[in-house]
Structures are given as C-alpha cells and as structure tokens.
Amino acid sequence: MATVSKRVIIVLACTECKNRNYTTTKHRERQRDRLELRKYCPRCRKHVMHREAK
Questions:
Q1: What is the domain count for the chain?
Q2: Strands 46-53 and 20-27
Q3: Which of the four, 16, 29, 40, 48, has the lowest number of CB atoms within 10 Å?
Q4: Cβ(21)–Cβ(10) below 8 Å
Q5: Structural domain of residue 11, as residue ranges?
Q6: pTM score, two decimals?
C-alpha cells in the first residue's frame, strides 16, 4: 500500500502585487508557520518577498 506523504503543495504569492508566481512543497509537521522567501517577481520585475498563500 502507498503511504501518505507528509509534504503538502503550497503556493507563494508576491507581497506587492499579490500575483501567485511559484509553487513549492513543505513538510506539514516541521514547518507550522507560513513560508516566506525572497524571490523574483516577473510582474514587478524585481526581487520581493513571497508569502505562502491560502
């Protein structure tokens, strides 16, 4: 039987333009808080903070 993965797919949204640019995975049990990464936003044309969206 297949096991249930403890990783969940999340979407990262730009904090300035609210555009959802990236998808990634995170571990459910280890990372409880919202993920924040500084990534490039093609709409803003610069590196800005991206936060985990619902």
A1: 1
A2: unpaired
A3: 29
A4: no
A5: 7-53
A6: 0.83
